[in-house]
Amino acid sequence: MAEILIKDEDLSGLKGKVVVLTGGSSGIGLATVDLLLSLGASVVSGDINPPPSEAPGLLFVKTDVSKWEDLRALFKKAKEHHGRIDSVFANAGIGPRANYLALETDDQGELKEPSHELLDIGLRGLINTACLALHYMKEQPEGGSIVLMGSSTGLQPLRAVDYSTAKHGVLGFGRGLARLAEIAGLPIRINTLTPSWTTSNVLPGLEDLMKGISHVPQPAVVVARAAAYLMNDASRQGNVVYVADGKYKEIEKTVLYPAYETILGQGNPSDDDVLKRLLEEAAK
């Protein structure tokens, strides 16, 4: 795996940039807001809750990412206020909600559908955030950068199934969208973060629970630095960056795709290659 070293000077290019992010009032999002402001960036934060304090350079827009109209208003406000959007961090998320092994019943004793709240926020909301980012950045000759909040849980089996499903979806969406943006010739970079256990509000009382099992989560600012780095480094496109124990490793080009190529076998076309030929054939 290719380890990434992030130095302070690697983030200096964010001064004067305009960043839109979701989930910026707590956890990793809040740490990213604080970092970006300290670097001289202007930040537009969309969250269902207000930030803990006001700060110069920060514009808060109350946003429920599961609602398209809220996200649309967030981006419209950012564009109206700053005239451009340089980077977007699709970060908002919640902890596990669904119980797939024991269905609940309603007042009439009828079985209720499992909760899709986490999927609506952590996957559908993220997809919609990225689509709006692409819409606004396509209008800018300089393009922009999109960072997607995935998780290391999207790389492994996890007993919190709705959370695992969302993060597996983020991984697939990010990898596919980065390829599609390249094919379309868009000057927009799309990268995905997959951090391991990090101090956040996704699980209530996480820090105390972690102390009880003698496991120390990494501080949120560690992930915030990775998000800022991916926004700033113009060479990073289609990367998946694993963040654990304060270290950063690029795994798309060094682990994930090479593993697929090994399974595929020498001389066999990839599914994406076949799809390209099918599309070309259909266009004749």
UniProtKB/TrEMBL annotation:
Sections of the chain in a coiled coil: none
GO molecular function, one term: oxidoreductase activity
Keyword NADP: yes
Keywords: NADP, Oxidoreductase
Family: Belongs to the short-chain dehydrogenases/reductases (SDR) family.
Protein's name in the database: Predicted protein
